[in-house]
Amino acid sequence: MNLSDERIVITGGAGFLGKYLQKELLQQGAQQKNMLVPLIEEYDLTKEADVVRMCNDMQPTVVIHLAAEVGGIGANRDNPGRFFYANMAMGMHLIEQARICKLRKFVQVGTICAYPKFTPVPFREEDLWNGYPEETNAPYGVAKKALLVMLQAYRRQYGLNGIYLLPVNLYGPGDNFDLQSSHVIPALIRKFCTAVDEGAGEVEVWGTGSASREFFYVQDAARAIMLATIKYDGPEPVNLGAGMEITIKDLVEKIREMTNFKGKVAWDSTKPDGQPRRCLDVSRAKECFNFEAGMPFDQGLKHTIQWWQDNKK
Which ranges of the chain have pLDDT less than 70? Predict the structure, then answer.
């Protein structure tokens, strides 16, 4: 695919990942005038009429669907109905309009929350249907996974070229640091930086620390999505990640050291840990579009902490 020839709509393009993706696409030849971002103030993508109007207004040839309603464990637990409906509705309306408009390509960015709760590590794409997702993430994960089924069905019946990507937990400069809706890395960074600033002697952390996660630097994620958009046309889902694993306890210790917090960490074991382990097999992305992550985790973490310290006010 020659990006300079395409009109590219990026849902969620004004968000954390979307801003990085725009830069990657521009560097690969996409034209600024032909890269379009539907804002929620103008188009509510959960409403079919708004999606139809967006397609008529923007006339895309490619849609990259990043937009989602989601948060960390707490937000997922508090909004299961909303998260299921919003993510299912957005994807369903967009894919149907992609068929009607005869879109050249539809790129669906899914979620690692779609994997079964006890998926063997490393997660392989073939494991996606081998059980039910972890309960706090299940409504969001099932809604996103249903869109994979829809894309594969539309490919068989209508010839729609829709691809499905599964990025693991993202982090990096510009992330969401709102404690009510953020994911684990920005939440921890904010908590420890605030404790240092206020001279607090203790930081409370959810769970037991035993769960593990893989973290994926946002710039690497944007590059992976750009490469898949250009090079991948297959029906099978593709994991996107760095192929690393760290326990939450070890993550907390890293962030504690990097923020120079000298106090106590208090673990609230009454709060959920979420999925026990997460780490991806990322070999398919290497095979299909030659993607490998480039950012070392400690370096990416330092960049993220520095960004928050520079921008927290």
Answer: none
